[in-house]
Write a structure and sequence with these properties.
- The complex is a heterodimer of chains A (316) and B (298).
- Chain A has 316 residues and is an all-alpha fold.
- Chain A is 79% helix and 0% strand.
- In chain A, α5 packs antiparallel against α6 and α5 runs antiparallel to α10.
- Chain A is globular and about 85 Å long.
- The C terminus of chain A is likely disordered.
- Chain B is elongated and about 75 Å long.
- The two termini of chain B are 14 Å apart.
- The N terminus of chain B is likely disordered.
- Classes of the chains: A mainly alpha (316), B mainly alpha (298).
- At the A-B interface, α1, α6, α7, α10 and α11 of A face α6, α7, α10 and α12 of B.
């Protein structure tokens, strides 16, 4: 419990700075934000209205407090295009991104665990070279290009999976899943490279430690030592690290969602940037970043439940 | 086992004169076949960028409406695009934009991030703990691509701003690595000795701390260049980097998106170029890291 409180307290400065950065976005637009948003040919009257709307005539600290007050009450402002509340836009698109993120994470986690264990336990063999090579290849592939290649192979040539055409899961589960397979694989494969490398090095470290030697000298079989001892300990740093991957994963979804025309949060950011709808950009980026911060807190908390050593050592 | 080897290795590394250390580094690097492959790829990439006018069979911007969407073989080595330009020539020229922009953005990150990390870690205190590190933490909570995207959008788009945006995205990583190095180095004997003989802080930082922090920074730089290539391609793909007509790999992929069902080569070759360029830098970075790691000393 003390650990939980401490962890949440440490998150406060981060949340504060993240909120300041998101808030400043509109104020940091070079020149007059109203002119940038409306275009140079807009009338002075329209610009003045936009400034009032964005609260730009108030002193900056007042603007920030007003904005933050709204955010804390779930009010992220309205879209500059059609006055829809930004929070509504986000809630509509959140399920798509969550489905993609969970799917891609499951894919990358599974690949990483299988390939990572195989390659570390057969260090120096062709299995190891092949898997480390593949992992590095995965990191080097731009996920949106991988997506395009998957579209060419599976949608254009084989014609077995659609290239786009999202439908909500509860309206048409089959169409939903077939539309999600390719984007999930494109994002998951790329992320799996990083995770595989992490698990491999973490597992190699465990395999070189004293307790593994003890377990072997007790006469335990290779399999038991590997699964019951080494992998269990290697998974601890690996799970934290995979939590950090969430940020990369959500960033990668921006482009995957664009390639596959999926109505998720990433696409919302890209579309709103194109429309100069900066309140929507601001609210969406804030939401995505809050998700990243919260997932990391959650993982840390889950940890203290799984591994009692962490909460003890953090007191020191 | 590994612990004793580490200390011995580090001591040996510090005692050896610079030439011997470099020779040892090269010997260990050379043993790693993948790293050598990475180095070769990176060298080819640089040569392609420098000699692009010699290598490319035609002007990358030349358009021939009689020769649009020809497959590889029929329309040059890599086919022609929807405007009749030679894809191979555009991929070759793309190496220029890609290398130039990734080197500049990583350069920006180093110039800003390393001095901040060094001074912050050296002086410690309130500034370090509550300002610099908390800002670094917060910036790293933003997904990298989204941060770069939004900064580029706020600044107004275009390749120049994309480089700045990507550079800003990398600053936290360089601050962290430089700072981590200083934290170890500042308590070592030679820094204490320099302090005792009355050397000023600036001098200690420049003459003693910075040179000894270089190895991990070098590794990070190589890996960051690889990622910057992907980031530039992504921003250009989304229309916030290179102009749609420019021979940039990302912009070419944007153009290719509308022709996925008819002209696979328009998407395939620029993407392969990105893949090999990034793979080259990643292999090189990994190789440098391993060759610098005392645990792999023989």
């Amino acid at each position: 419990m003390a650990f939980l409180v401490r962890r949440l307290l440490l998150t406060l400065p981060i949340l504060f700075i993240v909120s300041v950065i998101c808030f400043s976005m509109i104020n940091l637009i070079p020149g007059d934000p109203a002119t940038v948003i409306l275009g140079p040919e807009a009338s002075e009257h329209a610009k003045e209205e936009m400034r009032n709307r964005l609260n730009l005539n108030e002193p900056i600290p007042v603007q920030y407090v007003d904005w933050l007050w709204g955010v804390l009450h779930g009010d992220l402002g309205e879209s500059l295009i059609d006055d829809t509340p930004v929070s509504k836009l986000i809630l509509e698109r959140l399920p798509v991104t969550i489905e993609l993120a969970l799917g891609a994470f499951a894919v990358s986690f599974t690949i990483a665990v299988v390939v990572g264990i195989l390659s570390a336990s057969r260090r120096g063999t062709w299995v190891d070279y092949l898997s480390t090579g593949a992992a590095l290849g995965g990191i080097s592939i731009p996920s949106f290009w991988l997506g395009m290649m998957l579209i060419i192979i599976f949608a254009v040539n084989l014609g077995i999976l659609p290239a786009s055409g999202y439908e909500p899961f509860f309206q048409n589960p089959v169409a939903n899943i077939t539309a999600m397979i390719l984007p999930i694989i494109a994002t998951g494969l790329r992320e799996s490279g990083e995770l595989t490398r992490m698990l491999r090095s973490s597992l190699l470290e465990q395999l070189g430690s004293d307790y593994v030697r003890t377990a072997f000298s007790k006469g335990l079989s290779r399999r038991v030592v590997l699964i019951r001892h080494a992998v269990r300990n290697a998974l601890i740093p690996f799970v934290t690290a995979s939590g950090l991957q969430i940020a990369g994963l959500l960033g990668g979804l921006v482009v995957t969602e664009t390639v596959f025309q999926l109505p998720g949060l990433g696409r919302l950011v890209v579309d709103s940037i194109e429309n100069r709808d900066f309140t929507t950009v601001q609210g969406t980026v804030l939401t995505i970043t809050l998700i990243v911060v919260m997932v990391n807190v959650l993982i840390d908390v889950l940890y203290t439940m799984i591994d009692p050593r962490i909460s003890v050592s953090s007191k020191g | 086992m590994s612990e004793t080897v580490t200390t011995e290795g580090q001591q040996r590394q510090q005692i050896q004169p610079r030439e011997r250390r470099l020779a040892g580094f090269w010997r260990r690097f050379r043993r790693n076949k993948l790293a050598v492959f990475g180095l070769v790829v990176v060298i080819i990439l640089f040569l392609t960028a420098i000699f692009a006018p010699v290598i490319a069979p035609s002007d990358p911007d030349a358009q021939d409406y009689a020769l649009t969407l020809r497959p590889p073989g029929e329309g040059g080595l890599m086919g022609t695009d929807s405007l009749g330009s030679d894809v191979f020539s555009r991929v070759v020229y793309g190496a220029r934009i890609s290398l130039e922009s990734s080197l500049i953005s990583v350069g920006i990150a180093i110039l800003v991030g390393v001095p901040i990390g060094l001074t912050s870690g050296y002086f410690r205190g309130f500034w370090d703990e509550w300002i610099v590190m908390r800002i670094v933490d917060s910036l790293q909570a933003f997904p990298f691509l989204i941060l770069a995207l939004v900064i580029a959008a706020i600044l107004g788009g275009g390749l120049g701003y994309a480089m700045i945006a990507i550079g800003i995205g990398f600053i936290p990583a360089f601050v962290r690595i430089a700072r981590a190095q200083v934290l170890t180095i500042r308590s070592l004997d030679y820094v204490e000795a320099a302090k005792a003989t009355g050397t000023g802080n600036t001098m200690i930082l420049l003459r003693h701390v910075l040179p000894n922090s270089l190895p991990p920074l070098l590794v990070q730089t190589t890996l960051a260049i690889g990622y910057a290539i992907i980031a530039e391609a992504t921003l250009s793909f989304l229309g916030l980097g290179a102009e749609p007509g420019d021979p940039s790999w990302g912009a070419m992929l944007f153009q290719a998106q509308s022709y996925l069902s008819t002209a696979w080569w328009m998407a395939f070759f620029p993407g392969m170029a990105i893949f090999f360029a990034v793979l080259g830098f990643n292999l090189l970075g990994d190789g440098v890291r391993e060759a610098l790691d005392p645990r792999t000393y023989d």
